[in-house]
Amino acid sequence: MRTLRGNLLRHLGVLLFYTVLTLAFTYPLVLHLSDSVLGGTGDNLYFAWLTGWYEHAFFDGGGHPFFSEWMNYPQGWNLSTTDTALAAVFPGAFFSHFFGTIAGYNLAMMLTFVLSGWAMYCWVRHLTRSEGAALLAGAVFAFLPFRMAKLLIGHLNLAATQWFPLFFMGLTGILRNEAKGWWQPAVLAAVSLGLIGFTSMYYLYMALLVALVFVLAYLVFGGFSVLAKAAFWKQMGIFIILVVPLLYLSVHYFFNLATTGTILSRDWEYASMYSASPTDFFLPSTDHFLFGRWVGSHFNRDLWPEATLYIGLVTLVLIGFAVWKRKSTGSSALVWVALTAALAAFILALGTDLHWNAERVMVAVPGFLQPLLGRSETPLFLPTYWLFNHLPFFDRMRALARFGLFTNVFTTLLAGLGAAALLQRLKGRWQISVAAALIALALLDFYPGPYTDQLTKIEPRPLDTWLASQPGDGAVAMFPFEQVQDQINIFANLMHGKPFIGGLFNAYQPPQYLSIKPTLDQFPTPQAVDLLRELRITYIVVDTTAYGDYPLVERELEVNGLIRLTEQGQYRVYGFGE
């Protein structure tokens, strides 16, 4: 009982440590939890809307969590066409129920930092028994520039990286055939992989591929003898029994959409644009408080939301120490396995063909091959090109640079192993002092400085207030029609409570949207107005600043039978006279 209490207090202390660091790295967000978000009005507002939708579905009994009748009116919107991100967003829905939607989203995002740090801490401490090394690894993983970029761009689903250390911790336990609690690694791996599936289809697919490399590397460097042990197969049996239903629940909506043609294959050249460059892993983030501006002015960082993959200088030094001391620490096999997995993820993140500084690398084709290939230069194709064209569902992915996160996972693990090897050579105060110094240096290497200029206040527009005051549940359309995908207009659905013809369709467009878009793009033509009448749209909202000669537009609307209902700032709202 005393040991249990001690472990509980230790973990609570670790969670508190990462909570304090989270408040510092996201400052001043803690002062504006309920009214502001970091970054502009982009994907953060979609995930804030999803937070509100899950609150509506789970706590108000208001609908199916993976299908919203509020969006893509009147057909409704299958949320599986984007990441449903249930495991990442559900905590936000809980917080939203008590503190409001924006606070719910912000708290869910901040929670991913705390849990990611704690999860990596657990993995490294389990392997090394070094408190200092585990705290360091958790701090590095929690505040990776990759994760800070996801904070700014608002990708709550992709910020939920806490499951990966737990999954690979369980997988490592299965492969190491750990004697104590032989069933625990299997349960941990299965539940964590299921949670990855409920976080992001990208992450699930990538995790399965990297896990395959991890397992094969472990068999090569750790020996195949584990396959002859009954305990290993018992753990694998438990893992399979638990993980299959979890994965079915998380992916069957995606498979249904893929098999019906809603989620289509992508062209490799389109995916190529979202490939990482080798430099992305070695350049500090453009929001670093000291070096960020210099990096942004000397390197192409247009792809920063996906390709901010900086490993860290302290991490690289500690990796070198881990490799150097691998034999004396008895971690030789694990070091080589982690290096192999990190390298495999690095290659996959480079995409279908090589890029340098965010530009495709082209090489001249020898003259005798030009007639055969029909070109004078060619990209340098990489292994991912073959996977993209042959592996099932691989070509549904767009941002291949996201594989780089797994490089970060394993380089952080290696840094933890290196730190443990270093700290075990020290005693007493020296050990504590060096551990604290390493943590401070690693965090300084990542620190972005205060985000004072990145706060965006979210509040109802006069348009939203007016719509909310109207009786009934008449549907809303926005024009120009491209604005139905603007995240601010998606989030406004929570503020005015009216069904909306739009949604976040930038990844995959639902059939109704594809069928009506050509006509509604020509608004205010008679055909567009007739289609709005057919769709039973009540409130036609027009952004007057988006049209050059707006009086001419309004005259055409009047000719087509629309009447102005109100003017709210830059927006005029029209309805049908009948």
What distance lies between the first and last C-alpha atoms, to the nearest angstrom?
A: 74 Å
Q: Going across the biggest sheet, name each strand in turn.
A: 9-10-12-11
The helix tally amounts to 25
**Total separate domains:** 2
Name the poorly predicted regions: none
Shape: globular
| Average predicted local confidence, pLDDT | 94
Helix content: 55-70%
Main sheet properties: 4 strands, mixed
Number of strands: 12
Fraction of residues in β-strands: 5-15%
- What is the C-alpha radius of gyration, as a whole number of Å? 26 Å
Structural class estimated from helices and strands: alpha+beta
Which tags fit this structure?
single chain, 578 residues, alpha+beta, 2 domains, four-stranded mixed sheet, two-stranded antiparallel sheet, globular
Write structural notes for this entry.
The chain is of the alpha+beta class and 578 residues long. It has two domains: 437 residues, no CATH class; 115 residues, no CATH class. The chain has 25 helices and twelve strands. The strands form five sheets. The chain has a four-stranded mixed sheet, sandwiched between helices. The protein has a two-stranded antiparallel sheet with strand order 1-8. Helix 2 packs across helix 4. The protein is globular. The mean pLDDT is 94.
